[in-house]
Write a structure and sequence with these properties.
CATH topology: Cytosolic phospholipase A2 catalytic domain
Number of helices: 12
Distance between the termini: 31 Å
Radius of gyration: 19 Å
CATH architecture: 3-Layer(aba) Sandwich
Shape: globular
Structural class: alpha/beta
Length: 353
């Protein structure tokens, strides 16, 4: 692929991320109106790409404190969906944290994607093979129905307009019209992690409730913070959860686009002064979504906590060669820190541009 075509594709990528990050908020789901007392904890896990190990380390820390003893719902988008499945396995006693850390220690870029002459998007067949080995062969989770805890996984369609209206949430409970517990879990995970232009979109075999088309990363659309499925779940069971914990990765504002593309074999100079990276641009949507949650659902926000690491080191979004280092750093940080309330976390919002 020529340098000019690479630059053009990158420009499209940036436009796509900006469009989804600044899109109008979707039509809201209403919170359930009931008299049942709140019960249980919901875990909301955002997208993280190669920072997936950070979110896993945060979850382990909470688990060891006993804060995950009453999890009744999990929602995940992108790599957050992968962690949602792994958390199911750990709470189901099919996987230990030690085993999960060992999986991260063995993963390198070659286990996730393969670079060929076509350039971007890269071939993600290695990731599919990895998921088949871990999720299906080791854990025995073939379909959404196999997950023991009510769990929602988000995917995005680029086709609907206006942008931001193409997010679908698949749950192993019938919380919405698209939920179908018979869907192949690996297919759903591959679609939920298909970051536009970097990774190819993925079809989900056997879909009956949504169009049979390729789907993209669940964390680029409305579910930059995938709490909407929780509202659907609370309506479904007619009972609110007592506590919500949002798990997310560290946001590295110092990462440049050229640094983000190095794992794919591209050595690019600054593009006409553009130094925005996917990390920075997705952070816009992350903060906007939290602000929307606080404003639109103040009662839900009042029972929501946020756990996001903050330390000196920065990591690219698409470099999977340092997962163990990320895990260890984040776990060490988490031993000295705790989740904060959503409203307190919003006071820490940085100046992004």
């Amino acid at each position: 692929m020529t340098h000019k075509r690479v630059v053009f594709r990158i420009f499209l990528l940036l436009l796509t991320i900006v469009a989804f990050s600044t899109a109008k908020e979707p039509t809201s789901k209403e919170l359930p109106k009931n008299t049942k007392p709140a019960k249980g904890t919901a875990i909301i896990i955002t997208g993280a790409a190669a920072k997936i190990a950070q979110e896993a380390a945060l979850l382990q820390s909470l688990y060891e404190r006993g804060e995950l003893n009453d999890v009744v719902f999990i929602s995940g988008a992108s790599s957050g969906a992968l962690n949602a499945v792994m958390l199911n396995a750990i709470l189901d006693n099919k996987l230990t944290w030690k085993e999960y850390r060992e999986i991260f220690a063995d993963i390198k870029n070659d286990n996730v994607f393969r670079i060929d002459k076509k350039g971007l998007p890269v071939d993600t067949e290695p990731l599919r093979l990895l998921l088949e080995d871990v999720v299906v062969n080791k854990l025995g989770y073939k379909t959404l129905a196999d997950l023991p805890i009510p769990t929602s996984i988000s995917v995005v369609s680029m086709r609907p307009l206006p942008l931001g209206e193409g997010t679908y949430r698949f749950c192993n409970r019938k919380i919405n019209r698209e939920s179908d517990s018979t869907l192949n879990l690996v297919d759903v995970l591959m679609a939920s992690t298909a970051y536009p232009l970097v990774f190819p979109p993925e079809r989900i075999n056997g879909t009956k409730t949504i169009p049979n088309i390729p789907y993209y990363d669940g964390g680029i659309g409305d579910d930059r913070v995938p709490f909407q499925a929780l509202i659907e779940f609370e309506n479904y069971r007619q009972q609110p959860v007592e506590r919500v914990i949002i798990i997310s990765r560290k946001r590295d504002r110092d990462m440049t686009l050229s640094e983000e593309l190095k794992p794919f074999g591209y050595e690019l100079k600054t593009l006409n002064g553009v130094e925005f990276s996917p990390d920075l641009l997705t952070s816009v949507g992350f903060w906007r979504r939290l602000e929307y949650m606080s404003k639109r659902y103040p009662e839900l926000a009042s029972r929501t906590w946020v756990f996001v690491p903050d330390y000196e080191y920065s990591f690219p979004m698409f470099d999977f060669n340092n997962l163990k280092q990320q895990y260890d750093l984040t776990y060490h940080w988490a031993q000295k820190n705790s989740p904060v309330t959503l409203n307190e976390f919003l006071k820490r919002k940085p100046k992004l541009f």
